[in-house]
Design goal:
Blueprint: E1 2-4, H1 10-19, E2 26-28, H2 53-60, E3 64-66, H3 75-79, E4 85-87, H4 92-105, E5 109-115, E6 118-124, H5 131-134, H6 146-149, H7 153-171, E7 179-184, E8 189-194
Parallel strand pairs: 1-2, 1-4, 2-3, 4-5
Antiparallel strand pairs: 5-6, 6-7, 7-8
The structure holds zinc ion.
Length: about 210
């Protein structure tokens, strides 16, 4: 299993999955612990400032640290053969890259994102439906990323718990259909929405009808 991003979503996902008994977890991130992110990165504290997040995580949890940013160049080799890949990134470009590579490599993918008070989680199984069925192209980069919009700390924790649950479903072979999980901490609403596959989406190519 590979968690991409060791921040406010990725690091609690690692903690939850380790506590659930999952082993063979790797975490990829090239970023360091920063003061402005500590409110949502519950595994780190001010003693860790300036240290690489994956190094701190690997000291505290039985996970493998991969101190690189996953990109187009290294993505296939890092993702290939994983039981599941979990999105702990904070940019739409990275989320779509992971979505596309996981579909190409037939690796189950858990998309997770949070901004302000809201979050969403989607388990993408080989063959879809996928993130592009929800929105064919990434949103404008200027509206992108929690660095721009800010994030309410507990929203990251809630999304992490939901994402860890979906990852456990993926690796345990739970056959229940995928659904889009939507959480809003401003209203306290948690929704589970069916995501129909988009017949024009690349993930649907060659897929049997009625997925
Ligand atoms: Zn799709």
């Amino acid at each position: 299993m590979l968690i991409v991003g060791a921040g406010g979503i990725g690091s609690p996902v690692a903690r939850i999955l380790v506590d659930a008994g999952v082993r063979g977890i790797a975490v990829a991130d090239d970023d360091v612990v920063a003061l402005e992110n500590l409110h949502r990165q519950v595994l780190f504290d001010d003693r860790d400032l300036g240290r690489r997040k994956v190094d701190v995580l690997a000291e505290r949890l039985p996970v493998e640290a991969i101190p690189v940013r996953v990109d187009r160049r290294n993505g296939r080799s890092l993702l290939r053969g994983r039981a599941c890949v979990i999105d702990g990134t904070d940019s739409f470009a990275d989320k779509y890259l992971l979505n596309d590579l996981c579909l190409e490599l037939s690796v189950p993918f858990v998309h997770a994102g949070a901004a302000q008070f809201r979050g969403q989680v989607l388990l993408v199984r080989p063959g879809g439906p996928c993130l592009r069925c929800l929105l064919p192209e990434p949103p404008d980069a200027r509206t992108d990323e929690c660095r721009v919009t800010g994030i309410f700390g507990p929203a990251a924790g809630l999304v992490a718990a939901l994402a860890a649950g979906e990852a456990l479903r993926a690796i345990s072979g739970d056959p229940a259909p995928s659904a889009l999980l939507l959480a809003d901490l401003a209203t306290g609403r948690l929704q589970r929405a069916r995501l129909p596959p988009d017949p024009l989406c690349p993930c649907a190519a060659g897929a049997p009808a009625g997925r």
